[in-house]
Write a structure and sequence with these properties.
By secondary structure, chain A is α/β, with parallel strands linked by helices. Chain A has 14 helices and nine strands. Chain A has a five-stranded parallel sheet with strand order 1-9-6-7-8, sandwiched between helices. In chain A, strands 4-3-2-5 form a four-stranded parallel sheet, sandwiched between helices. At the A-B interface, helix 12 and helix 14 of A face helix 12 and helix 14 of B.
């Protein structure tokens, strides 16, 4: 099970590979939120999202013989790119199972990272887990799950170590830390890191309307499922329910869960463009959206929010700018 | 006259204020250029461009009584915001003379930084220098020139100190350093810093077609003037000619000057969006454009390019994405 020692070990393995993303701010964002807003832009991470941390952590933790046989991942795009890049860095092969309705940019980038992409139809109810298990069995690949995998959670937790260190350097001990939440790997990892390194900070998950499984699960105390699993704007964080491994960590350390609309996400993308000069994807912008447009639901003087990824098609980004730019 | 000691002193004054921007890369950009491409994203600097460095350097170097009477700047936008923010941080007033055709975002942001904005008509041949001199005299303000000011050049030079340190950490000693060039403050500042800290690196200026005064001046050995001074896409770097103070430094240390088309700049903006998740403005993208699309004019295995600013209207950015995204 992931713990702080495992996160620190992951940070050592990632040293010199993962980018230490900065902690950014803008007085304009502070004004909108009515408090200090700090932004951790994981869109600047290699492959354009925090997923490289978990991918590199997991691939680097494999024993060399296992790693040499290749790895497998199923992902709507960001985990795919993270695992593909990590595999390529270790000179091994990667097979990625992706939904056929994933953004073109993510599919193209995953291929460009040298991975073999296998598409499945998310809307038709095909199970990526079953498809993945078959490929694992038939081709001797090792599955790197997107969030229910201790070494992946440990890798995402390195983002939390950085948040704790960077906030401390700014004299900040207390804060709400808003994390864009799909299966909960980043939320759980950051929460574990902060529990050890910045115990007065608390992770609140942020999700889009209609895909608020984490928020509902944190209320009910059991893993709640979303009714639909496709079609939303925030493709990066549309998962069926919180993970089996991530949820107990989230239940102990995170909450409440915040929920924002797709329009909030688009507005936040426009603010990230205007004020931070960053490209955020919709699912990567929900935490900033909560910080800016759900300020009344926040308690603390300082809010730290992840921009978890920036892998967005030009069309969708243009839509955010056209509507809110 | 600006020298390395002055740049180091500026770096001390900027410590804890200016952002140490990261040095970014993408294997996709390396592939386009056919060499290693490193990007120094000054669009992530406070106020969205490197100009905050020079503004804060100059304002912080004033004696307190002078500073308390207020400062004055003339600028198409980025220097305006940099000086306005620096003045606000010191609790003093700033009057900014801006061309009436400057991007709306820049005018609005300069006002939002608390400055008083005075507009002039660039196309009608009004001289911002004369207007500035009158305001300086009548209101007791201290003029902070955009590039022909030793403490401004010293501030921009701190970007060069960081490039030298960050490149060394990556094991890089030799490189062509491509710098987006208007009046030459950033080019001269970086060149002076590299002369001391990374003498095997060489600054090449990059300008848009039609506004290639630096490139022509570096060839002829005297300050050449542009025929037109307005109307170009790359508003941030449209200056009449290289500076009186900056040009001798550039002549000794920089060149050759590279020239790219407006379309190259738009394409580079799209690549910065796609591969780096960064928002670059047209004038801030010309160095990346040279690195990617003028590769045959480069010699070295490694090219380091500044993205000097990201203050671009949604419409112009949308145009880059629509055409090349």
């Amino acid at each position: 099970m992931t713990d702080i020692a495992m996160i620190r070990a992951a940070a050592e393995r990632l040293q010199g590979h993962a980018r230490r993303t900065p902690l950014l701010s803008s007085p304009f964002l502070d004004r909108i939120s009515g408090r200090r807003v700090l932004v951790k832009p994981e869109c600047l991470q290699h492959t354009g999202s925090f997923k490289y941390r978990g991918g590199r952590s997991a691939v680097s933790a494999l024993d060399p013989d296992t790693r040499a046989r290749g790895v497998l991942a199923y992902s709507s795009g960001n985990h795919a790119q993270g695992v593909a890049r990590a595999a390529a860095e270790f000179g091994t092969s990667a097979v990625i199972v992706m939904p056929s309705d994933a953004p073109e940019l993510k599919i193209a980038n995953t291929r460009a990272e040298g991975a073999e992409v296998v598409l499945y139809d998310r809307a038709a109810g095909e199970s990526r887990e079953e498809l993945g298990a078959r490929l694992e069995r038939d081709r001797g690949l090792t599955l790197i799950k997107p969030y229910d995998e201790p070494q992946v959670i440990a890798g995402q937790g390195t983002c939390g170590l950085e948040i704790a260190q960077q906030a401390r350097a700014e004299g900040i001990e207390e804060a709400e830390v808003l994390v864009c939440c799909g299966g909960g790997g980043l939320s759980a990892g950051i929460a574990l890191a902060l529990e050890a390194e910045a115990p007065k900070m608390r992770v609140c998950t942020v999700e889009p309307v209609g895909f608020d499984d984490a928020a509902r699960s944190l209320v009910s105390g059991r893993r709640e499922r979303n009714e639909t699993q496709a079609g939303g704007l925030c493709d990066a964080i549309l998962t069926p329910m919180p993970g089996e491994i991530t949820f107990p960590i989230m239940q102990r350390l995170c909450g409440p869960g915040l929920v924002v609309s797709d329009d909030d996400a688009l507005r936040a993308m426009a603010e990230a463009f205007r004020r931070l000069k960053l490209v955020a994807e919709p699912g990567g912008a929900v935490a900033l959206a909560a910080a800016l447009f759900h300020a009344s639901e926040l308690d603390s003087d300082t809010v730290i929010c992840t921009i978890s990824g920036g892998n967005v098609d030009a069309g969708t980004f243009g839509r955010a700018l056209k509507t809110y730019g």
